[in-house]
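On clarity, I found the account of how folds are encoded harder to follow than it need be. For illustration, here is how one protein appears when written out as sequence plus structure tokens:

:::
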Amino acid sequence: MSSDEPLKRGRVNDEMLPSFPDERHPNTLPVGDVKVAVAGWIGSTNLGDELIAQAVCRQLVNLGADPLAITIDPERTAALLGVASVEHHRVWDTPRLVGTLRSVDGVVFGGGGLIQDETGPLNLPFHLGRLALGRLLNQPWAGVGLGVGNVSRRSGRQMVRRVMTGARAITVRDPASQDRLRQLGIDSVLAADPVVAWNGVEGTQGTDEVIAVSVRRPNVPGQRTLSTAPPLDGAWMANMSRTIDAVASSLGLAVRFVAFEAEQDGELHRQLAQRIGAECQLVEPNADTVLAAVGSARAVFTMRYHGALAALIHGRPAVLVDYSPKMADLAADLDGAMPALPVGVPDAGLAVQAMDRAVSRADDLPEHLERLVARESENAAALERLVSPASR
């Protein structure tokens, strides 16, 4: 549906948008002399994590290295990245992972929010376990573009201190992550999320008269995994739909729901859209089109970190919903140019005020983007220290 076609008020339109700029690099990357395993959250249905994997693999290729993705879905990774991969999702995948790690020349840990236990107690052991295997095999490693959230469990803090030592370099994506990692006894260099400077991002073709909305389930204390969290509270759904409706109405815009993780967000977006009076689209893009799906909107309301980055890259005013420390961390890093709202009980009045502030600060976004892009170069420097012959 193009921006000049009418949307049906108070109803959900399920048609996918027909075209956004293709932001994807060619799906076959040249092979370098140094093979590097990339240990992130790769192969998931979360488009933000897939964008990070694309950006990190491209940086490695630019340095003459041959990336090998550690993935939970080799077929998805082959189609998206065009690089070799090894599956590591369950315990019985570990022997094959060990064999693969013996054959590489180094390990990249990251990027993204791997250092946290907000999403469940299994998150840290899963991600740090991969790095620990690489260290046991005496593989050099670097951490790149890491987000560090809350590590509330003592066992998790001990694991970070034990495993994240001896790095060639560690970079983090924001000052708050750097502070939290320092409190855990690990030094790092301040960089930015790898996606913010990825040259696969293209400009949008005009601006659509919609507000891009990306809502996800909030993290629930005590949950083991997000997928096993209890059903959403009806009061939360009512408040969130009222809030989205109020912000859209204040701007005179229709609503484009953009799912960064269709399996988690799609039905949630559908239920929210059925509750609001604004004109609605439901969009489930892929990694090629998601940044443009957000960036072509006139404004953004997001619980997704890379929804905020898409807004920043394209200079769109945005309100961030602080379901996780990383959203408030990004808002602080942007000096409040993208205000953060608490997720607990969404408030329509506060959200409208926050969007008004975001619109008034939109002219500040290009300067913030330039600053983060310059800072992001530290990721490439860290990777170069890992793969350069002088460091081996």
In short: Residues 129 and 163 are 8 Å apart (CA to CA). The radius of gyration is 20 Å. The chain has a mean pLDDT of 88.
